[in-house]
Amino acid sequence: MTDIPMIDTPSPNFDERSLPISMLVLHYTGMPDAASAINWLASPESRVSAHYLVTEDGQIIRMVDEGKRAWHAGRSHWRGIDDVNSASIGIEIVNPGHEWGYRPFPETQMGSLIPLVYDIVQRHGITRGNIVGHSDIAPARKQDPGELFPWAQLARLRLALPRPTKNLMDPHWSDGGFMLALERFGYDITDPQAAVVAFQRRFRPELIDGVIDGECRAILLALLLPKPRGDE
What we know:
Blueprint: E1 7-8, E2 14-16, E3 23-28, H1 34-41, E4 52-54, E5 60-62, E6 68-70, H2 84-87, E7 88-93, H3 97-100, H4 107-124, E8 131-133, H5 134-137, H6 151-156, H7 175-185, H8 192-203, H9 214-224
Parallel strand pairs: 1-5, 3-7, 3-8, 4-7
Antiparallel strand pairs: 2-6, 4-5
């Protein structure tokens, strides 16, 4: 399957997939330390799991076989898929998260995460637009992996969509028009404010205010073009 070195710590929390793998979802653990996160994901009581966990010092823990449906996404939606768990591979990235002291993701951690993402994406033919954060698929519930996650680093390696930066033009959509475009891009817009915040957290992390402005409209328009234009 893969020759990346990893430690097996099996979780009992999985079942059978009902969809082919077409997505990769990145999470942060949002717990005080790696040990408590691993214990939680491996505990039958938690009813949550992920296929992999990457520690801050770069260890990769394999918890659920990729062929099985891990329970990482919860109630979520992306590009017409509601059973995201069935269609995705989930990676938990150790970070205390917004509740326990959110901090940047160390280079050592990213140095292990990137080859893992590359390996998964190559084997399953996952497109850049389906490499997402938990907040992208569950905007009303989740903030992870958050605004400090280096999406641009992945985008430069074609492992995520780039943030559009070139020839940006404001299409001057109404707020309703923006929401329709956001839904077309892939987001669940049931909670419009949460969807806007999630979009900003991913594609304009320096200003997450939930306000639909010209820059947000221009970025979204560029993302909807056939070829995303960004700093790749």
